[in-house]
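Annotated sample (chain length 289).
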Amino acid sequence: MARNRKAPPPGMVEKRGAGYWLTHLGLIMGVLFIFFPIWLAFVASTVSQPEIVHPPMPLWPGDQLWENYSKALVSGINAPVATMLLNSLVMAMGIAVGKIIISLLSAFAIVYFRFPFRKVIFWLIFVTLMLPVEVRIVPTYEVVANFGMLNSYSGLIFPLIASATATFLFRQFFMTVPDELAEAARVDGARPMRFFWDIILPMSRTNIAALFVILFIYGWNQYLWPLLITTDPSMNTIVMGIKQMFPSGDDIADWPVIMATSILAMIPPVFVVVGMQRLFMRGLVDSEK
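Output written by the structure step:
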């Protein structure tokens, strides 16, 4: 027997007028505008060299996908793309994880421990936001060279793992945690690191996820620092590799391989963003207090 459903009040019904459809049309046009160059790069990675250099360029994928991508991954132009992807992955993961660990511990110490010049130390950390890598790159290079870390993963990662931004964000979040939690942990006999591990760290997981996505992409897109400290082609990162693939002088660029490398370089960041999208959004809008 059918039940009579009460109609919602007129004010509760969403009105879908011209503005609603124009907004969605604008969003669709924006997505197509951004996606079209990526589609062209993918198409260029699946066709032959003559099809690219002799216009008009095709708008649909060709039959050279396997040949172009296998050539890029295995041999590349200066170094195999698979090796460069691995180098970039190790560097990005090391930078993201290192920044988060150091920032968590430093913010926890600044908020929950009382020691001389605590605020001064925090502001000294915060002031380093005005000193990007480009400003301190010469002394940083000298230190890395003196420690023998050129052409190594440690040289790629360690100079970039300190993060004043992440320390500041974690400090602000820790200051919103109720003091009653720390008092209850102290009454129960929990040591400071036990309080950090069992209470503070689980509460920070969405913030950690949001920062991980941002810091991973930051590490993945690094160009100047890897270019400076790596001279061995086997230590090249993928961003360096793409730049080095472009010819100099009268040489002819192997555009299918370059486009295939560009598409491969986008895959890991896309997987990170898509895989952590829910936690990333929650970390930006929800403090989970």
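Annotation: The longest helix spans residues 81-112.
Annotation: Residues 47 and 62 are 5 Å apart (CA to CA).
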